[in-house]
Protein: 1-phosphofructokinase family hexose kinase
Organism: Streptomyces lasalocidi
Amino acid sequence: MILTVTLNTALDITYRVRSLRPHASHRVSEVTERPGGKGLNVARVLAALGHEVTVTGFAGGTTGDAVRERLAATPRITDALVPVTGPTRRTVAVVDELTGDTTQFNEPGPVVDPARWSTFQEAYEGLVGRADAVALCGSLPPGVPVGAYAGLVRTARAAGVPVLLDTAGEALRRGVAARPDVITPNADELAELTGSHEPSRATQDARRRGARAVVATLGPDGLVAVTPEGRWRAVPPARVRGNPTGAGDSVAAALLAGLVDRQPWPDRLSRAVALSAATVLAPAAGEFDPTAYRDLLGRVTVTGEVTAA
Amino acid sequence: MILTVTLNTALDITYRVRSLRPHASHRVSEVTERPGGKGLNVARVLAALGHEVTVTGFAGGTTGDAVRERLAATPRITDALVPVTGPTRRTVAVVDELTGDTTQFNEPGPVVDPARWSTFQEAYEGLVGRADAVALCGSLPPGVPVGAYAGLVRTARAAGVPVLLDTAGEALRRGVAARPDVITPNADELAELTGSHEPSRATQDARRRGARAVVATLGPDGLVAVTPEGRWRAVPPARVRGNPTGAGDSVAAALLAGLVDRQPWPDRLSRAVALSAATVLAPAAGEFDPTAYRDLLGRVTVTGEVTAA
């Protein structure tokens, strides 16, 4: 199984309103809810691709109950979330039906106390021992030490389990130093980590900081990857239009799937670009269009060079 | 005990954000939650005044669980909500810290099917038999017939229990025809019911349509009441500044408290105006400032005439 870690899980709520007017009262015409936080999104994509996934992190309160009820109804996902006292945060996305624009409200989430963090680390160590790969995803909730991901990367490496890290800022900087197998920063995260806005240069610099492989996600321009086996660029056949929410999570999911399937890097990158584009094309945020995915898979261009042995 | 009915209960959520910008992402700095819907607000005020209150209506899903958890933690409130399949609606109020303005999003709420409506009516009949007074408050959820309040008024009257009706539109029009003891429309609701924008005339017209007593709430201008015992106007000592949310619910609560305490009408109206003003003055929406309430109570001006016997 693949283990995904979401320390800052969320209940993602989407509201459709006719037109957003500040300081007015709005009748919500449609409400949708789903488990959120990057690791849960990655898990949902992996499960849809047919992989067995175990999810861990924290959940609490009635919002945590809502997240767990929905996970229980998703095939191939096993819930190993650790209970926490405060309620799981909500995110509310308000979609304006006239313009299609989204206004987002993100709650801060519950504080994780040191005892709860210790409980989690023990649970994580037990789960890692049974995992084929681990994904550490998203921001850290209040109370979790900023070096948290570095510790979780080291635990996975000590167990010989490959680990992907998808986070930002100081949590990424510290996590990279613990030598994760793959990181998947976007252009902004990469620039913040390395100080360079030039993707190819920044990607190499991120590897020097400790990541074995760096896959930079460049939105519609595809991916740039620097790995021990070589360096590649992967681009979609055409620019796709749609909702980019979740496209980055689909990249992480495809790379994990390719990793456990022992695919060569160029094939993993093709999958990642196709799945990401199929996610942008899907009507619902964070889901992918399976027909578009199969169609795109053979049409991704991967160029690059294999590192001399 | 006093029974309050809230067919369209809610989980009222308030978010504080630094400044609301459409189509941007916002970090919520503070989240507050409380049970909502007019009848639950009236119950909370009555309980704070020292009355035993039973609340009924519908609750479902994890949002319904959140409402019930909070009710269980409120002294003097007994939860007699009837379970429903869909989740209780949320309302989200986003407060802009820079301007103090509020932007509101209201979910539609779960559909109540005919079987569930029958279950509720049976439960209500049992509760009414043990009540000193009944308050029927707020809008009707999808699925509940528009004549619902008329039926609930008749059940209370058949049991000899006084009934206050606080709703709007067609539900109010039909409910009034069933002869409730008190209705508490605001100026807009009264105009919609009677076609007249002149409060004194509209109040009398509303009585002719079936209400035994009509107490029109005129915001900062106080109350106009036409009852079988006489007609009065009650005004606060000075214009109060603050958050008017919940002021109308405090009027209903004060009138119910005065009714079960068998106070003369002028005293009930003084309490209603003082409690309403103390609610506007309280920092949190829908709560009242007890010191301001006691202070205001002796300073409300009630003028009017007793009907000749």
The mean pLDDT of chain A is 94. The CA atoms of residues 88 and 173 of chain A lie 26 Å apart.
